[in-house]
Specification:
two-stranded antiparallel ribbon; 2 strands; 3 helices
Length: 106
């Protein structure tokens, strides 16, 4: 297992261990931002006036690849304990990690 895969599985388990309610996924967002920043992405938080939303960018130029992720946390009562709560973020972060890094040649 690669170190990157192990780190992403750890991210998934960490999010699982910290269940949160909808629009209050501060811990999960913070951990995803940390992992993407460590991978070299420029991350801006507070997207669309949502404190848990963020945009992670890498490189520049005319070609843009976007990866959209969202949490599936319940709106009230009790935090989400379903596997989807952790797997959606991990899959999106992993997908971002897997993209080829931009080059100046074609």
């Amino acid at each position: 297992m690669s170190e990157q895969t192990a780190d992403l599985i750890a991210l998934s388990h960490d999010i699982w261990d910290h269940p949160e309610l909808a629009f209050e996924e501060y811990y999960a967002a913070e951990q995803c931002v940390r992992v993407l920043t460590e991978a070299g992405f420029d991350v801006s938080t507070g997207t669309a006036d949502l404190p848990t939303a963020f945009v992670a960018e890498f490189g520049s130029g005319p070609l843009v690849i976007a990866v959209c992720a969202e949490l599936d946390a319940p709106a009230r009562h009790r935090p989400c304990l379903r596997p989807q709560h952790r797997s959606q973020q991990r899959a999106s972060v992993q997908g971002s990690h897997s993209l080829p890094r931009p080059t100046n040649s074609v």
